[in-house]
């Protein structure tokens, strides 16, 4: 398989840069919003607006990319994502920040699901899991490294520096995609069969395999949101610093990105059984995390969670789109990747509520039970 210099590399680097930008901004957005006078509620709305905008935009963008080709949306998405990220530096009010945040959410939705469907379309038969593993590694690595690098840039050169760097990288990705990426053309008859009126179709959720994969992925993202939102608070109780927490998040994501292709091959070799194996590995890691009180224990626990999550996410993504016709993979990926946004929105709120009742350690224990129950029920629902 030709990776460097090929279309898969162009798509990989484009997705990586987009997720790197999301990660760059994550640790500084609340602080930047406070400098504009935002309240805690307004900060929550600003964060939620990004995920909501992505959720609304992803499905129609996926459908339209099937009709008009992938390249147009990838190029436009990266370019305008870069432009609107640069505009963060020029906003002077909470409302302005909210508006820019919404537009960055919309244009980021032009990239990830379309890029995923591009990879799925070019994947050789019997190697879909491997190819989706490569694609998912760009998301994991970008979002994993982003917060660490973004925090360093903000500390060293000022809080607006990550906006400038991210904006420049987005525009650079657009230029590379425009110059190097080949478009995927569809048969004219197939184009006529796809109706633009179905931009918000949820038809794929009627498919048992797609629905089961969607729910499992949403559940895993919910748990991951609980980790990200409350890990720092949990770690501080045991004398672990914020920088050490940042290192843990970055290190686990980098490790998984390195092995994601191999995890994808597991699905190609062993099939759907890898989904439930991954679910139980996640549950084990969450249970160990609930009892971890040292830096090394937390690092080891989250590494186990990340390994299980990587196996599960690669497998569920592959299963969800495996039997989708090539000319509708964009539509399917657009719908499937909304599970990420839904999981982030529901997870942070619901597990935060549980943390108030059970404590953070208790919430992590509940997460282990939750993912086993949901994962097992959905796995049994998958068509063999």
Automatic annotation (TrEMBL):
<feature type="transmembrane region" description="Helical">
    <location>
        <begin position="333"/>
        <end position="355"/>
    </location>
</feature>
<keyword id="KW-1133">Transmembrane helix</keyword>
<feature type="transmembrane region" description="Helical">
    <location>
        <begin position="162"/>
        <end position="181"/>
    </location>
</feature>
<dbReference type="InterPro" id="IPR011701">
    <property type="entry name" value="MFS"/>
</dbReference>
<feature type="transmembrane region" description="Helical">
    <location>
        <begin position="210"/>
        <end position="230"/>
    </location>
</feature>
<keyword id="KW-0472">Membrane</keyword>
<feature type="transmembrane region" description="Helical">
    <location>
        <begin position="131"/>
        <end position="150"/>
    </location>
</feature>
<dbReference type="InterPro" id="IPR020846">
    <property type="entry name" value="MFS_dom"/>
</dbReference>
<dbReference type="GO" id="GO:0016020">
    <property type="term" value="C:membrane"/>
</dbReference>
<protein>
    <submittedName>
        <fullName>Major facilitator superfamily MFS_1</fullName>
    </submittedName>
</protein>
<dbReference type="InterPro" id="IPR036259">
    <property type="entry name" value="MFS_trans_sf"/>
</dbReference>
<feature type="transmembrane region" description="Helical">
    <location>
        <begin position="361"/>
        <end position="382"/>
    </location>
</feature>
<feature type="transmembrane region" description="Helical">
    <location>
        <begin position="295"/>
        <end position="321"/>
    </location>
</feature>
<feature type="domain" description="Major facilitator superfamily (MFS) profile">
    <location>
        <begin position="7"/>
        <end position="384"/>
    </location>
</feature>
<feature type="transmembrane region" description="Helical">
    <location>
        <begin position="45"/>
        <end position="65"/>
    </location>
</feature>
<dbReference type="InterPro" id="IPR001958">
    <property type="entry name" value="Tet-R_TetA/multi-R_MdtG-like"/>
</dbReference>
<dbReference type="Pfam" id="PF07690">
    <property type="entry name" value="MFS_1"/>
</dbReference>
<feature type="transmembrane region" description="Helical">
    <location>
        <begin position="72"/>
        <end position="91"/>
    </location>
</feature>
<feature type="transmembrane region" description="Helical">
    <location>
        <begin position="236"/>
        <end position="258"/>
    </location>
</feature>
<feature type="transmembrane region" description="Helical">
    <location>
        <begin position="270"/>
        <end position="289"/>
    </location>
</feature>
<dbReference type="GO" id="GO:0022857">
    <property type="term" value="F:transmembrane transporter activity"/>
</dbReference>
<keyword id="KW-0812">Transmembrane</keyword>
<feature type="transmembrane region" description="Helical">
    <location>
        <begin position="9"/>
        <end position="33"/>
    </location>
</feature>
<feature type="transmembrane region" description="Helical">
    <location>
        <begin position="97"/>
        <end position="119"/>
    </location>
</feature>
């Amino acid at each position: 398989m030709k990776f460097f210099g090929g279309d898969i590399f162009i798509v990989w680097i484009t997705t990586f840069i987009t997720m790197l930008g999301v990660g760059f901004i994550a640790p500084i957005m609340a602080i930047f919003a406070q400098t504009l006078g935002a309240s805690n509620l307004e900060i929550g709305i600003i964060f939620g607006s990004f995920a909501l905008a992505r959720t609304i935009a992803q499905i129609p963008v996926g459908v339209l990319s099937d009709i008009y080709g992938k390249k147009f949306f990838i190029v436009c998405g990266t370019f305008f994502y870069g432009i609107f990220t640069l505009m963060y530096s020029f906003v002077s009010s909470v409302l302005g920040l909210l508006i820019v945040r919404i537009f960055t959410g919309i244009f980021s939705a032009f990239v990830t699901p379309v890029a995923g469907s591009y990879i799925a379309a070019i994947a050789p038969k019997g190697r879909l899991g491997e190819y989706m593993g490569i694609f998912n590694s760009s998301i994991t690595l970008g979002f994993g490294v982003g917060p660490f690098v973004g925090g360093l840039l903000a500390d060293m050169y000022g809080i607006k520096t990550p906006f400038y760097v991210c904006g420049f990288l987005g525009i650079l990705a657009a230029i590379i995609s425009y110059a190097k990426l080949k478009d995927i053309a569809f048969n004219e008859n197939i184009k006529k069969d796809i109706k633009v009126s179905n931009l918000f179709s949820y038809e794929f959720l009627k498919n048992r395999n797609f629905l089961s994969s969607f729910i499992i992925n949403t559940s895993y993202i919910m748990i991951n949101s609980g980790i990200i939102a409350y890990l720092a608070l949990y770690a501080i109780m045991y004398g672990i610093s914020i920088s050490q927490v940042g290192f843990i998040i970055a290190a686990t994501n980098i490790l998984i990105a390195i092995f994601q292709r191999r995890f994808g091959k597991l699905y190609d070799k062993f099939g759907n059984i890898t989904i439930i194996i991954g679910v139980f590995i996640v549950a084990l890691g969450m249970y160990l995390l609930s009892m971890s009180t040292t830096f090394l224990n937390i690092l080891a626990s989250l590494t186990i969670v990340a390994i299980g999550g990587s196996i599960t996410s690669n497998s569920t993504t592959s299963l969800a789109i495996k039997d989708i016709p090539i000319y509708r993979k964009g539509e399917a990926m657009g719908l499937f990747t909304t599970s990420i946004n839904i999981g982030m929105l529901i997870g942070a709120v619901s597990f935060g509520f549980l943390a108030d009742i059970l404590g953070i350690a208790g919430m992590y224990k509940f997460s282990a039970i939750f993912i086993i129950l949901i994962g097992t029920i959905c796995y049994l629902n998958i068509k063999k």
